[in-house]
Each structure stands twice: as C-alpha cells, then as structure tokens.
Amino acid sequence: MRYEVLGPLRVSDANGPVPITARKTETVLAVLLARTGQVVSVDDLVRELWPQGPPPRARDAVYVYVSQLRKLLARGGEPEPIITRAPGYVLWTLPQAIDFHALQEHLPTARGMMRERRYEEACDLLEKVVALWRGPVLNGLQSGPVVNAFAAWLQELQLECTELLVESKLMLSRDREVVSQLRCLIREHPLQETFYAQLMLALWRSGRQADALQVYRSARDTLHRELGLEPGCWLRNLQRTILEVRA
Fold first, then answer.
1. What is the DSSP letter of 242?
2. Is the pTM value of this prediction over 0.85?
C-alpha cells in the first residue's frame, strides 16, 4: 500500500487508487499516518474528528470508521496495517510507503550538500524533493489538532526545501532562472523575507538594480502594513550594498 500526504490524501496499491470517499474515515487515516508507528488513542481520534465537541456515542462512531478503513486497506490481500493497541490503534507500514518519509530522508542530505558547497548535487536532489508536493498538505482535512500540527510541520519543511533550492541555484549563478519563480513565491508567501532577499540578489546580479530596490520597497511596505515591522538585517544590508555600488 502506498500513502501520499503531500497534497490531498491519496492511497493506492498494486491495482491502482484506493478510493476513500467518507471524510471522517479519511481523517482517521490522516491522523494514523501523522503518527505512524505510534499508538493513537480513541480519545485523540474523537478530538480530531469533532474539534468543536463530540456528539453522543462518538467513541462508537470511531470504531465504525476504523472498521471501514481496515476493510479498504485490506484490499488485495495485503497484511492488516491498523493494529489495535490500547488505548487505541497504531498504523504499521514501511517508511518508504509514505511520501513524506522521502522528504525526511532527503532534506538532511541536501542540507549537508549545501554546507559542503556541493551545489549541483544539492540542486538536483532538492528539485526531486520539491516535486513531491502536489498541493496543500492534506488539503481539506485540516480540522483537528493532530492533522493541523502535522500539516503545519510539513509546510514549514516545504518552505525550507524551496528556500534551499533557490539558494543552490543562486550559488550556481542561475540568477535569471529564479526571478519568475521567486515572484510567484512572494505572492504565495508575502511575509517570507527570505524570498524578497533572494529576489533582490537575483535581480541585482542580473544587472537590474532598480528592480532590486523596488523589491525592497515592496517588502518594506508589506511588512509594515501587515505586521507593523521594518525589514530584517539581511534585507536592509542588501539594500545598502546595492545603493553603495550604484553610487
């Protein structure tokens, strides 16, 4: 069985997709995947399924959803992945069966490559890692504390991977290549100062000093409007350097 969480939740086996159409059943699976190899209590599942407060007989409903999920995941005669373990359930599967484990494996390697200035290798690896994402993590299921925290953690890792990928391209002098990508990233993450700084650097090194300074003004206006803050040291120092070179 193959599980994909870096986007809408998808499950497949050797015969193709395994459809999980009931939203509550899908949420149960998302919680078990977020805590793969750990016991998830029935009470935790109740809180996840009904964060605003459980209905009567909520625990009985959880037993029904787990039973439905077991039937779906038993398709094709594969071993039962959901084990009853007091006070709840645990999902057992091979790490390589879940897409975010590839992220956990490759990201530390990419960090090491960057530290060792192996930028070509880091860039190749990070492009593969970034390609794992198919959209917002567990899109449509963010409702309870476990899934919300899991999604937020993976989204932070996605930002780190993207920042490192752009940095590796900048270190390889692929400045023009990253300009349009960074403009898109800034639209998606308008408070992420790193992307503004990377765009300023790419534009400056491409001979577009005026555009680079306009990016600084845009960052300053956005940060002041949204957070009441001035740009951080990196952005201010980069702006100062560009101005000094122009002078």
1. H
2. yes
What radius of gyration, in Å, describes the C-alpha atoms of the chain? 22
What pLDDT sits at residue 161? 95
Could you give the angle at the alpha carbon of 190 between the alpha carbons of 184 and 191, nearest 5°? Answer: 140
Task: With a cut of 90, say whether residue 156 has pLDDT above it.
Answer: yes
Whole-angstrom Cα distance, residue 126 to residue 56? 48
Q: To the nearest whole number, what is the mean pLDDT of the chain?
A: 92
Distance CA 213, CA 191 (A): 17
C-alpha dist (Å) from residue 99 to 85, 93, 112, 130, 133: 25, 12, 21, 12, 9
Of 65, 57, 19, the closest CA to residue 40 belongs to 65
Which tokens belong to 184? 């898109």
43's enclosing H/E stretch is helix 42-49
44-88 pLDDT per residue, tens: 999 999 998 899 999 999 999 999 999 988 875 667 899 999 999
Contact 147/29 with Cβ under 8 angstroms? no
Instruction: Residue 145: count other Cβ atoms within 10 Å of its Cβ.
Output: 12
pLDDT tens-digit map of 102-149: 888 899 999 999 999 999 999 999 999 999 999 888 886 767 899 999
The shares of helix, strand and coil residues in the chain, as percent rounded to the nearest 5, are 65, 10, 30
Q: Quick one: angle between helices 145-171 and 193-205, nearest 10?
A: 20
Give the DSSP per-residue string, 126-173.
Answer: HHHHHTT--SSTTTT---SHHHHHHHHHHHHHHHHHHHHHHHHHHHTT
CA–CA distance, 7 with 33 (Å, rounded to integer): 14
